[in-house]
Structures are given as C-alpha cells and as structure tokens.
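Thread: quick sanity check before group meeting

JM: Hey all, I'm pulling together slides for Thursday and realized we never actually wrote out the predicted structure for the chain we discussed last week. Dropping the sequence here so it's in one place. If anyone has concerns about the input, flag it before I start.
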Amino acid sequence: MLLQKICKDEGIEFVTQKTIKLQHYDWHKTRRHQVDLFIDSTEPKICILADGDYWHANPNPYRVSS
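JM (edit): ok, ran it. Output follows.
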C-alpha cells in the first residue's frame, strides 16, 4: 500500500496484482507470476514485488496496528 501511495503521489500510473507470463518458466517451475505493481507507461515495463509480512509468511505473528 505504501508503494501504491508513492506512485499515486508521483503521478505514476500502475496496475495492482497483474499476472505476467514468465519467459523462462522452466527456471521458476511456473509459467505465470503475479506482481504487486505493474507500470506499463515506461519502457522497459516495470514489475514491482513487495515482501510484506502478512502475505509472505513472516514467522512472527501479524498484527494490525491501530
């Protein structure tokens, strides 16, 4: 969400949770992968993956701060 805010504040257009096709899927054991942010308005195109605690199975308990 922080990356989305930064992109919005800078006027960068992006798509969230875009599934992309991997060229060398034999390396990754999968043909497709979902990225957190995809920026299509640049060349080359940019894929951003963010390692968040909750979604990437941090062994520490996840707590939402209030």
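AS: nice. The first helix runs from residue 2 to 9. The longest strand covers residues 32-39.
JM: adding both to the slides.
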